[in-house]
């Protein structure tokens, strides 16, 4: 009785799949999550847990890559900072608003400009959160620099300027 399971079914015709069709289907397939995680770890020097979090959904991965593409001069060294903001402030704001990342009022380019201002020292951690909240609310049409100017959020890092302020106060 065990031998009968190896006999071909007479009602099923043989299935022959064309190699060209297989190649077309493979070419049309999107990048798979595991391959995307590996590429992100290599290309952006992300930790495995960051790459895994950013590839949970296709929309999240697209948002991250759009933000990286919008960085000045495609500065991929700031990818970790973008990942941190996406997993921190952006994720919290999305959760509070009960929305998906594709519906976020904050464009990836706006997040990239915010991260660039943090990296160049214009914003500190606290002032960046204030600027993020203003961006989330849609102030200044998503222009980070306009929000920084309107709210006076620019961080003063020049030692001479700080010394003058201290002298004036004293």
Task: Describe the model.
The protein is an all-alpha fold and 170 residues long. Helices cover 61% and strands 0% of the residues. It contains 9 helices and no strands. The chain has helices at residues 19-28, 33-44, 48-54, 58-70, 79-97, 108-119, 125-136, 144-151, 159-169. Helix 2 crosses helix 3 (48-54). The longest helix is centred in the middle third of the chain and has 19 residues, at 79-97. The radius of gyration is 25 Å and the shape is elongated. The N and C termini lie far apart (100 Å). The relative contact order is 0.08. The mean pLDDT is 87.
Map the helices and strands:
Elements: H1 19-28, H2 33-44, H3 48-54, H4 58-70, H5 79-97, H6 108-119, H7 125-136, H8 144-151, H9 159-169
Helix pairs in contact: 2-3, 4-6, 6-7
Can you give keywords for this protein?
170 residues, 9 helices
Percentage of residues in strands: under 5%
Order of helices and strands: HHHHHHHHH
**Largest β-sheet summary:** none
Low-confidence stretches: none
Calculate the mean pLDDT score and round it. Answer: 87
Give the beta-strand count.
Answer: 0
Q: Name the helicity range.
A: 55-70%
Question: Class by helix and strand content?
Answer: mainly alpha
First and last CA, distance: 100 Å
The 3D shape can be described as elongated
> Treating each run of at least 4 consecutive H or I residues as one helix, how many helices?
9
Radius of gyration, taken over Cα atoms and rounded to an integer in Å? 25 Å
């Amino acid at each position: 009785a065990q031998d009968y399971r190896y006999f071909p079914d007479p009602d099923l015709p043989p299935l022959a799949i064309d190699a060209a069709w297989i190649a077309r289907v493979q070419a049309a397939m999107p990048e798979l999550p595991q391959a995307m995680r590996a590429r992100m770890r290599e290309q952006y020097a992300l930790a495995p847990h960051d790459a895994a979090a950013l590839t949970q959904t296709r929309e999240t991965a697209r948002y991250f890559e759009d933000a990286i593409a919008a960085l000045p001069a495609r500065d991929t060294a700031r990818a970790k900072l973008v990942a941190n903001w996406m997993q921190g402030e952006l994720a919290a704001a999305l959760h509070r608003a009960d929305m998906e990342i594709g519906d976020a009022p904050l464009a990836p380019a706006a997040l990239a400009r915010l991260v660039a201002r943090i990296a160049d020292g214009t914003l500190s951690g606290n002032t960046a959160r204030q600027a993020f909240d203003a961006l989330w609310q849609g102030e200044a049409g998503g222009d980070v620099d306009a929000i920084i100017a309107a709210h006076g959020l620019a961080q003063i890092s020049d030692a001479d300027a700080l010394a003058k302020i201290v002298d004036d106060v004293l």
